[in-house]
Amino acid sequence: MPELPEVEVVRRGLERWVSGRTVADVQVLHPRAVRRHLGGAEDFAARLRGRRTGTARRRGKYLWLPFDDDTAAESVLAHLGMSGQLLVQPAGAPDEKHLRIRVRFADDAGTELRFVDQRTFGGLSLHDTVPGDPEGLPDAIAHIARDPLDPAFDEAAFHTALRRRRTTIKRALLDQSLISGVGNIYADEALWRSRLHYDRPTATLTRPRSAELLGHVREVMTAALAVGGTSFDSLYVNVNGESGYFERSLDAYGRENEPCRRCGTALRRRPWMNRSSYFCPRCQRPPRPATATPPASRPAVPPLSARAAS
Question: Where does DNA bind (predicted)?
Fold first, then answer.
């Protein structure tokens, strides 16, 4: 599934090629693509026609297009799922095999927005915005935390939440209500850079250690953004259909049995929550198992014979 860098690359493409345009027509070619829109396909299309799109925005792995007009505070929320693509294509280009939604615009730019989704896990939906939210956050994702590249991300609150939760560090990094945008790939990369095992209890992280981890999360995501994200196959592309190249720079993810770039030890892969975790067994030593706390000492009870004699 695309993570923050991949979704941010798409958002930047939408900002450049789609924001500020007026919708002329919408075609929903597969009902599952709008299944999260309660009004159904016809209502979705009708409510978009004539609307002018604002600046594309993102929170974590979600992105949305607010409307730049005087009507109700609404926005189109996009979730790419595992294979969703938002493509800006010439209006006369052949339809993609898995084209689900087409959006035409009332201008002479000659391009249209297409939502293509092979596995139909993603989709578009129309939502009200959270009242008073300056970013126009759709109410459907109000529970999603800010991401580590967001200037408003609260590092102190993040550390406090880590210490309070009875969980492990990789589970925490993938918890989108705690920190958004981090998925399996970039969690493994940041943990490798931090020399932290994925099963390290969050309660053991000191403030400097959690700050160091956050720094590595930001580093790896910024590096991925610079080369368009990570593309293991043709399912993730930007709005122009181009793949990202960060796969070539991965230090941990997908490198089972290859030498660690720090110490030379063969990297390992372990099944983890229906996924895989990649780590160096030498640089990222697993946490020691908790030792049983000995029972509190009690005063010795005299034998029954001694109590009888007394």
Answer: 98, 119, 165
Contact criterion met (CB below 8 Å) for 269 and 277: yes
Q: Which of 13-17, 120-124, 247-251 has the lowest mean pLDDT?
A: 247-251
Degrees, nearest 5: CA angle 242-244-246: 165
Among 51, 58, 61, 114, the active-site one is 61
- Separation between Cα atoms, residue 31 and residue 37, nearest integer Å: 10
Give me the catalytic one of 2, 5, 66, 138.
2
CA nearest neighbour of 255 among 288, 279, 219? 279
- Which tokens go with 8? 């941010």
Is 61 tagged catalytic? yes
Which of 192, 248, 244, 252 minimizes the C-alpha distance to 217? 192
Contact indicator for 85, 117 with CB cutoff of 8 Å: yes
Find out whether 3 and 182 touch, Cβ atoms under 8 Å. yes
CA distance 80 to 286: 34
pLDDT band at 210 (very low <50, low <70, confident <90, very high): very high
- Contact criterion met (CB below 8 Å) for 44 and 11: no
Name the catalytic one among 269, 275, 282, 287.
Answer: 275
Q: Which residues sit in the known binding site?
A: 98, 119, 165
Q: Which residues sit in the known binding site for DNA?
A: 98, 119, 165
Token pair, residue 179, equals 């920190």
Residue 42 is a catalytic residue: no
Tokens of 12: 């930047």
Each residue's pLDDT tens digit, 22-55 = 999 999 999 999 999 999 999 999 999 999 999 9
Question: How many residues can be counted in the chain?
Answer: 310
What gap in Å lies between CA 236 and CA 80, rounded to an integer? Answer: 9
Contact 55, 66 (CB under 8 A): yes
